[in-house]
């Protein structure tokens, strides 16, 4: 027998079936191609659990999920945060709606989810893992496998959890810019044969210690190491540390006092967690793009197409403003602003090209010749698509490419409610004209704001510059879909790093009032320092490159010809947190079984230089030194390196002053 809560959730799901179908229809008319989405209504506790599990109902047993659940619950209880939805990258996708949401919130979630699902299905970075994912089944299999290891009487549960802890500290140390390739036993076996250590090979011969010392003494072994310079591997630095450890990693046997092979379950767990790291990587790599994309289409559907009813709009607007107005590096607002900027600049370029093909208009006289208000009036959507008069449907031409003839006929027969869903009357072309960005009040200055440099750049590649006799003729040929078409192109190929790098311009920074701030060591506080787009871009890129984490690579798996592991930090001007680096090396040792070293560049400031800089109202110059940390399983050794050993790690464009703690994690 169903509980009252189950009955309420079932009723809620049934009541949302209409909005779900309508939102999917509208999304496809707008040119989106989402995966099919299964919607589930869940209660407060279930939602917190799903968020803790990363959007899935089943994950491998580990304490991290409980910690995430507790944090999410406290955030909701004490900080006023509210979880509206969660959707996963799967085909079909699964989205979860919280029972306590208002109808306005549920509709906003549904439109938001349809756009997310489109992004999952069409962005190529998600295709790097799989173009047709079955993630729920994969993660469920992983959970069952690890649960079996934990229940095995020959394996201690604590050992499995501890091993997972070791791997998770490296979960972002993969090569997210390469397609995921699983590592099988053949790969690992061949690697062990190719890169075996002489001393370990002798150990495999099962010779007595006395014979080894007499025939193969330490001096001879050291000579073999010193003479064999060709055993360095990998040939090029390897970014996928988890793959390297899966192929070559060992564990330290305290009884035997040497490195031994990882057990089968350890190898399986390592590859399971590596697989999941690759699956979730695209979501981390496209957070700004994806949330901005979903916010753009949600806003268009909910506000511009009145998907939010008259009694729901105030609630929607209030909640959306809170999402976009939250502090910090907000991917929703930054992503939305960039997508709108791309749409506006692409539409502007297309209009300007048409105007420059009009007799008497050149890039030199453009601002003096063109009446921008007249241009905007001519670009206003045709009354046919700007509004829907349900009483005058007989006058609507069914053959117009902007009109959906099938829906028009159904509306005439009374089978389509155009008062509630006016967009059902239009095709993609009709909706693009209906929502043309340049004529919206907030964007009406875009055409007039175009710079002389941009005008010259556009005109440089134009040849037939007198196609139109009048501006009216030129604007009659404007394609209202070019902005959306360009947005879809960008959605397919970019990630956050390339997205920000290519489209964050000085015009965008000035329009949105972005600026940089710096930590001033001379005064001990933060100050606004620049509105130059290159500076703003640099700050953002520090947070986006390698998920905002330090980039560490495998430099040598046979360091010092002793099968030690040498890692290198690709320094970008932000120094490592040395204590965190040490904690991580201890974990890596457990996956390598032999000593582990890390090379980095340390930045220091002399107290006297800081005081002098403070008096002169300027910043002190830092001193950079090479440093190597080495952990042998028992203790750490720190040595200063000659600059030639770390010169290749040094940043070419250093940003010393940016130092929020979270960037050092």
TrEMBL record:
Pfam families listed in its UniProt record: SpoVR, SpoVR_C
Organism superkingdom: Archaea
SpoVR protein-like N-terminal domain: residues covered: 13-347, 482-548
InterPro entries per the UniProt record, alphabetical: Spore_V_R (IPR007390), SpoVR-like_C (IPR057008), SpoVR_N (IPR056174)
Domain SpoVR-like C-terminal: 550-602
PANTHER family: STAGE V SPORULATION PROTEIN R
Name used for this protein in its record: Stage V sporulation protein R
UniProt organism field: Halovenus aranensis
